[in-house]
Amino acid sequence: MKKILAFLGSFSLITSGSSLAVSCYGDINYPWEVAVNNLKVKTKEITNINNGWRKLGNAISALNTQMESDHSKGVFVGDEQPTNDFQVLYVNAETFESRDELRIYYRVSDYEKGDHKNLVWGELQSFTQEVKINSFQISVIEDQKITLGETKVLNINLNVFEEDITLGMDDAEIIEVSNSSEQLFITGLKKGETPLTLNFGVDDKVTFNVQVVDRVIDWEQVEISDQVVEVNSQKEANLHLNNWSNKYTKLSFADKDLVTGELTETGFIIYGHVRGETTGFLHIDENRVVPFNVFVIPSSLIPEIFSISNQKINLGETKKITVRTKNLDPKLLIIQNEKPLTVKTTLNNGELTLFGSRDGTSEIVIFAHDVAPVKFTVTVYNQDKPEISKQSDYVAIVGGGLTRSLNVSNHILGTELKIKASNSLIDVRVVAQIHENGNGSIGIVANGQVGRTLVTLTYNRAENVTFWVTVVEIPEILPIENVAIALGEVTRLEVNFTTGPSFLIFKVELEVEGIVEVAKISTSSAKGNFEITALKVGEVNVTITTRYNTKPRTFKITVI
Q1: Which helix (H) or strand (E) element contains residue 512?
Q2: What kind and span of H or E run contains 301?
Q3: Last residue of a domain, one of 297, 327, 345
Q4: DSSP-based three-state secondary structure for 436
Q5: If you average pLDDT over residues 222-244, what whole number do you get?
Q6: CATH of the domain at 522
Q7: Which superkingdom does the taxonomy of this entry point to (predicted)?
Q8: Mean pLDDT of the chain
């Protein structure tokens, strides 16, 4: 195979756009019933995902969307016209007599009456498809209590589309709410109470109360983490406590030569003077003291998380980023994601993975215990949908091959173009990866069998592109009559062969040089045209063959 592909690279091949409008080659049959069966299989797969649907309308929406994005296996949609006599056109789906059945309408490709050249879509036909309907009954959701700034996640696990859930509340200033089909996210914005209603349809809803309260400080449970500060530097510690007041609080240290400090509205600031270790004390009152350790170190030992630039990713794109640290084990890193529904994040041993799940921007914070946090934003945008350039049908010779250039518009770097044949008649592959400008090429090699195969190109969210490859026998050159030509005359010779690929490369051999000059001037379907120039009087045998080891044909040219 490598030798064949290397051989392809040495030729500049031109393929024709012609295709054979037949339904079988040899022992391989392609009746339209196969495409109809493919339509039934696809319909069954789509209408029975998610372990059931809340209502038939959701199943119909999913079916229409999937059919528009997947044109594989001879199934077409929309205004597309048939290209061969074994394709099927998906028309639409409607509710049937029962609440759990759909009627699927389709047309199959056929020739017009009295015309065996023009293909049209035939009469409207249909079949029924059972749909699994979820009999979910909405349960009661208990009243919720959250603190200011807290985000609480409730698992609702409903088999409905996200857009089928609507939210209602009396006071939108108290809480912020978002949802998926599986979870509800409630964030406390200000103190208060409001009812929250989830609507799933005309009669399906559930209402519960959400109360937002201040965080009450339990000083018996308050712990202050170890503090690390550089020599001749300062560090601010935020206690993250609501109802915090420093009016009656004092700050002291066991060794004032090493470190000093002062209280702030949110915590305290410590100043490092001399390298060493000591203990700090936060005095709540005479009876309550919270101790903590303080380490004063040289600046070269301070742990650090390096900054990360703002990121942009495409909807549906996955991007990996390595979070670099200094004097810090990456396993200790923690991540906070402002909008987990916009961008999904995972952080594992310093490897950050981003996935764009919906349009928008989310702020990401990466931090560790007692280490300055790093903040950056991730913007998810819906890039223009990629598109693969259309490909004409190919005719290949048994044992031969060809390459064909293509382009992917709106190409996303790192995204792979995939190519697949419907059977083993040919090998297909991407000869080169898609370049930054979207240009690339594909290679096709016939494996030694005569027949026909459907090739499918897939790429990210682009619509699939399909084309047919017909593999034919090695052509045979038909007998050539002897030629007589006058000295100085120029004439043309037409050479015919049995099959019709237009990319045959001829070889011409003269038994004796100098009597005539033979040059190929064109190659068309099933014939080649040559120009003969008589140079001097005499006879010469001429042999013509092709690079596919075609049986040679020899004829005589006489110059008089």
Answers
A1: none
A2: none
A3: 297
A4: coil
A5: 79
A6: 2.60.40.10
A7: Bacteria
A8: 78
Residue 178's SS3 state is strand
Tens-place pLDDT, residues 421-458: 888 877 877 666 778 788 888 888 887 778 888 889 88
**pLDDT per position as a tens digit, 66-76:** 776 666 667 77
Q: Is residue 272 part of a domain?
A: yes
- pLDDT interval class at 337 (50, 70, 90): very high
| CB 475 within 8 Å of CB 548 | yes
Mean pLDDT of all residues in 478-493? 90
For tokens 């990360």, what's the residue? Answer: 308
Cβ-Cβ contacts under 8 Å for 364 (sequence gap 6 or more): 308, 335, 336, 337, 338, 343, 345, 375, 376, 377, 378
Structure tokens at 186: 């409630």
User: Per-residue confidence at 62, pLDDT binned at 50, 70, 90?
Assistant: confident
Number of domains the chain contains: 6
454, containing H or E segment: strand 451-458
Residue 220 lies in a domain: no
Name 309's Cβ contacts closer than 8 Å, sequence gap at least 6.
376
What separation in angstroms does the CA of 350 have from each of 331, 337, 347?
Answer: 7, 16, 6
Among candidates 384, 475, 397, 402, which has minimal Cα distance to 438? 384
- Please state the pTM of the whole predicted model: 0.31
Do 54 and 79 contact (CB within 8 A), yes or no? no
**Amino acid in the structure at residue 339:** K
Query: Could you give the C-alpha distances from 407 to 209, 404, 417, in angstroms and in order?
Result: 56, 10, 10
Residue 12 has a pLDDT of 33
Structure tokens at 310: 């703002």
Judge contact between 495 and 479, C-beta under 8 A: no
Residue indicated by tokens 């934003």: 377
Let me know: does 540 contact 533? Beta carbons within 8 Å. Answer: no
